[in-house]
Design a protein that fits this description.
This protein has 15 helices and 27 strands. The longest helix is centred in the C-terminal third of the chain and has 28 residues, at about 540-565. Helix 8 (about 365-385) runs parallel beside helix 15. The two termini are about 45 Å apart. It is about 25% helix and about 25% strand. InterPro entries: Ald_Oxase/Xan_DH_a/b, Ald_Oxase/Xan_DH_a/b_sf, Ald_Oxase/xanthine_DH-like, AldOxase/xan_DH_MoCoBD1, AldOxase/xan_DH_MoCoBD2, AldOxase/xan_DH_Mopterin-bd_sf. It holds the Pfam family MoCoBD_1. This is Xanthine dehydrogenase family protein molybdopterin-binding subunit.
């Protein structure tokens, strides 16, 4: 790890005995698409073009809840340049779609359930014509009172044919009569965050001669999207193809299926290519957001601070449709006690439908919300027991071999104590008390109204955990093919590069295994075998594992003739720096010489060990693997204005194995910075279910001025033996942990409870100074 860009490494860790190869695992290869993105040649979906192109626009509901009385498309159809208008009547059958639970229609037909729900779509010769035609569709609504409070959803009339309750998980672990000597309680609220994807959400649909359609999208799960589209178009899956265009970046499911699906319908109806580029407002209205969550907690501890029992109620607002809410609830309930040993736990979790915008998969879903709550409870316990907050946590941390409240034994490395000690012992940043006033970096910015005399510094801690891969019986599998011809290797795998670095990792794996310098990763489409969604570290583990297995099979094909010729097994041969040598030095040749005139290939799958659903008591071996993180936050708070500046975040994380040091540092920094936004600025307001200010002016993302110094003080490389390469997911857990650490630091600075994220200024004001 370098010491650049605010990154610090611990001097206690010994340097490797040998420098890593300039290629292969352990090297800091740049992103494969870095140059194309910086030069502006990267193939984004918004840049696509086709001969005879039409432009699409979608009419969306202005109401959060309404009954549709009638839809009149006459005026829109008669407008010059309009080629087609589609509504629910043009969708064959009554298909439903959705990432996790397919429960939403392509177009609303009888009832509108959320602000922005698609009603109709238009294809026209010009984008402005398409938008005007969409606005010309006359919809008569009977406006209904929206259900926007998830607590009211239990008693409200059903908002959906499947009812308002999506899932209920009652977790029971240990003795319900157990009581601690010290008890603390808290009520916490986590707001709604938008994934705010980089770049416009866009797509192109092209009809095929066989009556099918090809969709060019920045999809993060192309095979699932293909199957969904085929069902909604009334076509067999082999008549629908998805080609993945360049994905600018994704911290959630990249593209909203609500505009993917109308594109194909319009292309099939017009017989022409149809393109849609969503505005930022349409993105806010269409795609899923983080679940707003209400959490009630009661922690019991003994006089020494050891946890005795945790009781909690967790309520997730799923919005109008289920999406991945069942999975998010499972994560929230399972991790409700955090990375701590809790002998007795009783958790009630619910996910309910409302008329708020839909919630779904966003990095760290479920785990982030409970982390903010259980870490607040640990701060309360420390204060009540007059213990140092870090010391209280150390007395309770989880370790390998301990049992989670769901009854699953932690078999993977869990160096939580080591992580916490690393950030606790890292030197604190210098206080600015000796600097001139004009050099102070005050909360609120250099032009703010803050005064140095009103600023207090606080130090807080956060411990977070996430699960990797799918859970509760999800069949995680990926397939990859490695081909070598003329000394050039090609990897075919439908794992989508979403910014997590998979294409770079695939190159490194093949370089390491075969000693081939030039490696290409083929573009992704659904003609390839499926690789699954790009989330929860899946592609590092499952797709990377498939690439490794295929590369090893090619390696065996390469070495077998040489081993046979010299009368030895392939295990006695090694590939290093592009050379093949035997253990005794008798054989020495280059990889390129051995490959001359040969074309080798192999296909392999990677499927981790199975998991099981949580049972009626919330028990089960639900997760393949876990990742942990500790963060110490240092903040300055202006206690008169309530403004907060994050001075420094010290991060320690268990990563299993560092595969690419530069990319790993970048992923951790990005996750921590995203956590700063969740803690302080990002709050998508939805009064009466209507998204207020659906733009990046009203929704405040953190900027470079908000980014603190990020010190990566320790990376624990204790390999997970069941994971390919022993590596763990690194992106989600700092996102989960950073908001809790920042809130803890604000509590330390102000003495206020800070029970809501993002932290509102009034929560950080101290009136009794």
């Amino acid at each position: 790890m370098s010491n650049e860009a605010g990154i610090a490494t611990t001097a206690a860790e010994p340097a490797p005995e040998t420098e890593p190869s300039p290629h292969g695992i352990g090297a800091s290869l740049p992103h494969a698409d870095a140059r194309a993105k910086t030069e502006g040649t990267f193939p984004y979906a918004a840049d696509l073009w086709a001969e005879g192109l039409l432009w699409a626009a979608v009419l969306r509901s202005p109401h959060a809840h309404a009954r549709i009385v009638s839809i009149d498309t006459t005026h829109a159809r008669e407008m010059p340049g309009v080629r087609a208008v589609v509504t629910h009547e043009d969708v064959p059958g009554t298909p439903r779609h959705g990432r996790g639970t397919p429960d939403r229609p392509v177009f609303a037909s009888e009832v509108v359930r959320h602000h922005g729900e698609p009603i109709a779509a238009v294809a026209a010769d010009h984008p402005d014509t398409a938008r005007m035609a969409a606005a010309a569709v006359i919809v008569e609504y009977e406006v209904l009172d929206p259900v926007t409070d998830p607590e009211h959803a239990f008693e409200a009339e059903p908002l959906h044919p499947d009812g308002n309750l999506i899932r209920h998980i009652p977790l029971r672990h240990g003795d319900p009569e157990a009581v601690g000597e010290v008890v603390v309680e808290g009520l916490y609220r986590i707001g709604r965050q938008d994934p705010a994807p980089i770049g416009a959400e866009a797509g192109l649909a092209v009809p095929r001669p066989d009556g099918g359609v090809e969709l060019y999208l920045a999809s993060t799960d192309p095979h699932t999207d293909r199957n969904t589209a085929a069902a909604c178009y009334g076509l067999p899956p082999d008549r629908v193809k998805i080609v993945v265009t360049g994905v600018p970046g994704a911290t959630a499911d990249r593209e909203d299926q609500g505009f993917q699906l109308p594109l194909g319908l319009l292309a099939l109806k017009t017989g022409c290519p149809v393109k849609l580029t969503a505005t930022r407002e349409e993105s806010f209205l269409g795609h899923a957001h983080r679940h707003p969550t209400l959490l009630r907690y009661r922690h019991h501890a003994d006089a020494e601070g050891k946890l005795v029992k945790v009781e909690a109620q967790i309520l997730l607002d799923a919005g109008a449709y289920a999406d991945t809410s069942a999975d998010a609830l499972a994560a929230a309930v399972s991790f409700a006690c955090g990375p701590y040993v809790v002998p007795n736990a009783f958790i009630e979790g619910w996910a309910v439908r409302t008329n708020n915008p839909p919630s779904g998969h966003v990095r760290g879903e479920g785990a982030l919300q409970v982390c903010a709550a259980y870490e607040a409870q640990m701060d309360k316990l420390a204060k009540k027991l007059a213990l140092d907050p870090a010391e209280l946590r150390l007395r309770n941390v989880l370790a390998t071999g301990d049992v989670l409240p769901i009854g699953q034994t932690v078999t993977c490395p869990a160096p939580v104590a080591e992580l916490l000690q690393a950030v606790r012992d890292f030197p604190l940043p210098a206080l600015p008390k000796d600097a001139p006033v004009e050099e102070w970096l005050l909360p609120g910015g250099p032009e703010g109204a803050g005064e140095p005399g009103a600023v207090r510094r606080g130090v807080g801690y956060g411990l977070g955990m996430v699960h990797m891969l799918g859970a509760e019986g999800a069949d995680e599998v990926s397939t990859a093919t490695v081909k070598v011809h003329d000394g050039i290797a090609t990897v075919l795998c439908a794992a989508v590069e979403t910014g997590q670095g998979f294409t770079t990792l695939a190159r490194q794996i093949v370089q390491e295994t075969l000693g081939v310098e030039e490696v290409h990763v083929a573009p992704v489409d659904t003609d390839q075998p499926p690789a699954g969604a790009g989330c929860r570290g899946r592609h590092t583990w499952v797709s990377g594992g498939a690439v490794e297995r295929a590369a090893k099979m090619v390696r065996a094909q390469l070495l077998q003739p040489l081993a046979h010729k010299f009368g030895m097994s392939t295990e006695l041969l090694q590939i290093t720096d592009g050379k093949i040598t035997s253990y005794d030095g008798v054989l020495s040749t280059t990889v390129m010489e051995a490959l001359e005139g040969k074309e080798l290939w192999a296909t392999a799958q990677c499927r981790p060990h199975p998991t099981e659903p949580l049972d009626a008591a919330g028990q089960g071996d639900a997760f393949v693997g876990l990742a942990f993180c500790a963060i110490r936050a240092v903040v300055d708070v202006d206690v008169e204005l309530g403004s907060v500046r994050v001075v420094e975040l010290a991060v320690a994380q268990d990563v299993g194995r560092v595969l690419n040091p530069a990319q790993l540092a970048a992923r951790i920094e990005a996750g921590v910075t995203q956590g700063v936004g969740i803690a302080l600025t990002e709050n998508l307001r939805t009064p009466r279910g209507l998204i207020r200010h659906p733009d990046l002016t009203g929704y405040a993302l953190p900027t470079a001025l908000d980014a603190p110094d990020i010190r990566i003080v320790k990376l624990v490389e204790e390999r997970d033996v069941v994971a390919p390469f022993g590596a763990k997911s690194v992106s989600a857990v700092p996102v989960v942990t950073a908001p809790a650490a920042i809130a803890s630091a604000v509590r330390a600075a102000t003495g206020r409870p800070v029970n809501r994220l993002p932290i509102r200024p009034q929560a950080a004001v101290v009136t009794d100074r």
